[in-house]
Model the fold of this input.
Amino acid sequence: MERERWTSRMAFVMAAIGSAVGLGNVWRFPFVAYQNGGGAFLIPYLVALFTAGIPLMILEYGLGKMMQAGAPVAFAKVRNKLEWIGWWAILVGFTIVIYYAVVMAWCWGYLYHSLSLSWRGRAESFFYKDFLGLSDGPGKLGGLRLPVVLGLVLTWASIVWIVQHGVRRVGRVVMVTVPLPVLLLAIFVLRGVTLPGASEGLKFYLTPDFSKLAEPRTWLAAYGQIFFSLSLAFGIMIAYASYLHERADVNNNAFITALANCGTSYFAGFAVFTVLGYMAHVVGKPVAEVVSGGPGLAFVTYPTAISLLPTVPAIFGFIFFLTLLSLGIDSAFSLVEAAVTAVHDRWPISRRRATWLLSGIAFLGGLLFTTKGGLYWLDIVDHFANNYGLVGVGLAESLIVGYVLGAERFREHVNMDSEVKLGRWWDFCIKFLTPAILGILVVWSLAREFESPYSGYPGWALLAGGWGVILLQINLGVALMSRMAFLKVSLPASASLVVLAVLLKLLPPMWIMFTVASVILYGGLAWSLFRARRRI
Done:
């Protein structure tokens, strides 16, 4: 059966941009930029874009087009035993869309509440108590929040309607959903710059603090922001590119997608900080005291600012949450599309059936995050999936293409039909620079984990929702590739890690070293004798 194709180059590029541009462009980039030098942050940000973001995007586009398959089959074509890397990428993305859809469910709820500004005067208590009914901790789920469940149903109904009909429908949908949030953000920028205090907000956003460039944390933040904001290591771009014609451009499409994504992030900062500057002016506080990032910006700080607007605040509230929905839907259905492509490529199952099956599983999994304790679990899973799952997949991708497939061979292939030709700088980035940066990000994250538990959560919750989820993704990825490899390699290795973690927690250092040394020395001897048993 002939592979489905994009109806045009524009459809592919718009879909890729839609996947990359998501909620994080509004609530993460402006805050990260402000924290790391304001206008000066653009220097490491652009360096990271051209030395890691674009090279990795070219890698994923090129791999998908070269192999004409989703991530698992594409990696299997490189080397059979590498198929699990593709499944790991798919499973990380699938985990993320399970809770990402719940965040979109919040947006549906707030779209309704914006008509009456239900949060007016008490945005924080409205979000955490009235809307989420937040419990005391992750150990107290407290039942489902039905308004959030209803929003989750609307989100998955939208995703299924789009994905089940293939990339042709995706191509038509993104012609609306990609430009729409940019136009809506432009409305906020135009309104924001006319408000008193807007200039103070922009000063916080844009004033360069060049001393921050001497701090390694700033450069790691720049690389982290680039990596997390381009929809890399989910298997999405590999899946999307697999529907390109075999003579389609790769390199320039990657440049267009990456630059459009980063341009949107930069533009969103103007919409955010002009309104926050106005809010600081009205309440009589410095801008630094009203700035926040993440969901708190979208569902507490910004709604507070909207309710203070002098004219038609309800309309601007509705526009803001419509903006978030239009930003989120492209990213959400692209994550599902990557999984559907992988399943459809691997097994004889129709696209429609794969879409309904995966969406049903994701919906049921998402119910955990609609409980009163769901926000805690969402925070834990998000932290580990991004800092270890995505970074781990990206590191594996760059090493596989750089050393197994061969960076020079790969570069020659993508240059063949591309409008922008790559030089040896790309080889250097993929083989050395990008793996080094991603490796440092992992070590940096691990160092912080050992320094103190993430956000003060109890150890059992971090084990179940964090490390447990990462191990489950890897083991399931190996099992989907080969049951024998799962039973002989993956499962014993994971069990050993769990035992080691328990020992580190319970035993004094002397006994830990004794146990580890004994296992390595005598276990290694036993393994060697077992391998040599036929010749003794």
Remarks:
- DSSP finds 22 helices and no strands in the chain.
- The mean pLDDT is 92.
- The radius of gyration is 24 Å.
